[in-house]
Design a protein that fits this description.
alpha+beta, Glutaredoxin, 4 strands, 2 domains, single chain, Glutathione S-transferase Yfyf (Class Pi), Chain A, domain 2
Length: 234
């Protein structure tokens, strides 16, 4: 059984998609990051970095319980465990390369673009421009790569496509004010729509909907989400 530590944000969404697409049995453990539940000792024992997603596999290697944190690590772990969505052996170098491109580039720059356009104080125009333009540059790199391709790696749907789907779903926030945020990137839009059309995507979107997560962006939320912006308590 997989214990899945979840909040309705882009990185956990990737894991929801894999679990649903692979048909793996799992149990959802909500972690309300706006309340600071990611900073509790119990959760830090699972992910020392205090981020979601994380999983605990009660049937890990050699039958032992295993924890895995970071969405890319989880995708790789589950892909290797099940043998699903990993592409061919000859595509392994490409798979790793694009996974890390998404993990170190498109994802983080998208996240920072959203932060500085929606959460940061007014007047930080340099940061807004820097992160949004870098997110768009990463969009363009992937869009160019997808020319003439149906999927990111090889000829089949893989964990790289799942990883991209998680953040492309937030393109309207990354490219704030754009009526059709993926229109300038037609290959990227096609990939997103291809993944979105999978029956597992609708099931993945339903994960956690039976839990009432905090939606108010108050002082508690800011301290929980951005603790490094605040001095430690004396």
């Amino acid at each position: 059984m997989i214990r899945f530590y979840f909040h309705p944000t882009p990185n956990p969404a990737k894991i929801s998609l894999f679990l649903e697409d692979a048909g793996l049995p799992y149990e959802v453990f909500p972690v309300d990051t706006s309340k600071g539940e990611q900073h509790t000792p119990a959760f830090r024992a699972i992910n020392p970095n205090g981020k979601v997603p994380a999983i605990v596999d009660t049937d890990g290697p050699d039958g032992k319980e295993a924890r895995v944190f970071d969405s890319t690590a989880i995708l790789l772990y589950l892909g290797e465990k099940t043998g699903k969505f990993m592409g061919s052996a000859q595509d392994r170098p490409e798979l790793l390369s694009w996974l890390l491109f998404l993990a170190s580039g498109l994802g983080p720059f998208s996240g920072q673009a959203v932060h500085f356009q929606f959460a940061a104080p007014e007047g930080l125009d340099y940061a807004v421009n820097r992160y949004r333009r870098e997110a768009e540059r990463h969009y363009q790199v992937l869009n160019d790569h997808l020319e003439g391709r149906n999927y990111i790696v090889g000829d089949t749907y893989t964990i790289a496509d799942m990883s991209a789907w998680g953040w492309l779903d937030r393109a309207s926030r990354v490219r704030k004010g754009a009526d059709d945020p993926l229109a300038p990137f037609p290959n990227l839009k096609r990939l997103f729509e291809t993944v979105e059309a999978r029956p597992a995507a609708a099931r993945a979107r339903a994960v956690g909907q039976d839990h009432e997560f905090k939606r108010v962006n108050d002082e508690e939320t800011k301290r929980a989400l951005f603790p490094s912006n605040y001095p430690p308590a004396a």
